[in-house]
Amino acid sequence: GPFSLCAVGEGEVGVDIEVVRPRSPGLARRALSDGEYRWYEERGGRLEDFYTLWTRKESLAKYTGEGIADVRQIVPPLPGEESPGGPALRSWAGEGWRAALCGEGPLPEEIRWV
């Protein structure tokens, strides 16, 4: 897509940015944990919400270095929830894109566009 996202920190970080685009209808059920899927469905099953969850998963997987072999097993906190004792996680949204950063807090409030 037309975006790239970079993060620099004192410790480990993981970032992901995605262009919101149509996906196969069953992807959300295959990729999201049961709790994530409920959150997604409660919001109407919108692509934008799927990508919010997906970028959080990817940023956490990059932070830990474990990859996404079993994507349903990667379960970051839902947007608006905290993970006590875990890394900090922040999501951003814009017209046609979603992004997330995972790392040791505190995390920046906004993306610096260059």
Name its key features.
single chain, alpha+beta, three-stranded antiparallel sheet, 3 helices, 3 strands, globular
Beta strand %: 15-25%
Number of helices, counting only DSSP H or I runs of 4 residues or more:
3
Order of helical and strand elements: EHHHEE
Considering DSSP H and I runs of 4 or more, what fraction of the residues is helical? 25-40%
Total strand segments: 3
Query: Strand sequence of the main sheet, in spatial order?
Result: 1-3-2
Rg over CA atoms? 13 Å
The coarse overall form would be globular
Largest sheet: 3 strands, antiparallel
Q: What separation lies between the terminal Cα atoms?
A: 16 Å
| Average of pLDDT | 92
Low-confidence stretches: none
Structural class based on helices, strands and sheet pairing? alpha+beta
Helices, strands, pairings?
Elements: E1 13-19, H1 27-31, H2 34-42, H3 47-64, E2 88-94, E3 97-103
Antiparallel strand pairs: 1-3, 2-3
Describe it for me?
Strand 2 and strand 3 (97-103) form a beta hairpin. The protein is built from three helices and three strands. The chain has helices at residues 27-31, 34-42, 47-64; strands at residues 13-19, 88-94, 97-103. With 114 residues, the protein is an alpha+beta fold. It starts with 12 loop residues before the first strand and ends in an 11-residue tail after the last strand. The relative contact order is 0.24. It has a three-stranded antiparallel β-sheet with strand order 1-3-2, with helices on one face.
